[in-house]
Amino acid sequence: MPFSYRHEEGVAEIQFDDGKANVMSTTWFRELGGLLDRAEKEEAKAVLFRGRAGMFSGGLDMKWLPTLKGDAARELVETFSATMLRVWRFPIPTVAAVAGHAVAGGCVLTSACDMRFAVDGPFRIQMNEVLVGMAMPTWAAIICQSAFPVPQSNDLLLLARPFSPKEAHAIGALHGLAANEEECVAKARAVAKGFAAIGARPFAVSKARQRREAAERALALLFSE
Predict the structure, then answer these.
(1) CA–CA separation, 146 and 127 (whole Å)
(2) What whole-number distance in Å separates Cα of residue 28 and Cα of residue 41?
């Protein structure tokens, strides 16, 4: 299985590594949802997401995607959007340790986290949907716009501009850079552990108030655009 999970010192750490591009699928989203359930049940103080050295995630499996029809395609859209919006609205603080490329769904997952750290290297943070003939979903745009400021968010979403980690950090889309994967994960863990000082209920309520309306609007538009 591509996922591993551990809960230490209040931090639930979710790692995905399929040995390749860490591609996403309906099954992938379901498994991630189950691990989020586990983190909530265990009352984690923070959740840390990480891929592997060189690759956070390349997004949806583009070889598998064209084979989907009817109910299977609809299920993917529903599961993808619901999972990413759940991370964005998650009542527990979230941190991304991005040690490589974060493209399409990988960029969305990165943007959905409350704090984001990356390795400073030859990697792309990119929403490439318009390059592969796909319109940008409202829900994905909302999540990415919460991390990328204007005008760079327009470049990201409408022009498919790839950002290097250094460029993303310079505009505030990342909270910190690291020289390698080990340092990136260490920085992310340190921040995640620090979240224990934040009141769990005040954080959850504040986040819900800030993001509920936008998330509900995006889901209402899911199949009407």
Answers:
(1) 14
(2) 20
| pTM for the model | 0.96
In the numeric block, which tokens belong to residue 5? Answer: 């999970």
H or E, element range at 51: none
pLDDT, tens only, 108-120: 999 999 999 999 9
**DSSP labels for 86-155?**
HHHT-SS-EEEEE-EEEETHHHHHHHHSSEEEEE-SS--EE--GGGGT-PPPHHHHHHHHTTSPTTHHHH
Question: Which residue is listed with tokens 């979710």?
Answer: 14
Residue 1 pLDDT class (50, 70, 90 cuts)? low
pLDDT tens digit string along 111-156?
A: 999 999 999 999 999 999 999 888 999 999 999 999 999 999 999 9
Query: Nearest 5°: CA angle at 115, between 93 and 117?
Result: 135
Burial environment of residue 9 by CB neighbours within 10 A (0 to 12, 13 to 18, 19 or more): exposed
Mind listing the domains of the chain with CATH numbers? Answer: 3-220 (3.90.226.10)
Helices and strands, counts by H and E, the chain: 8, 9
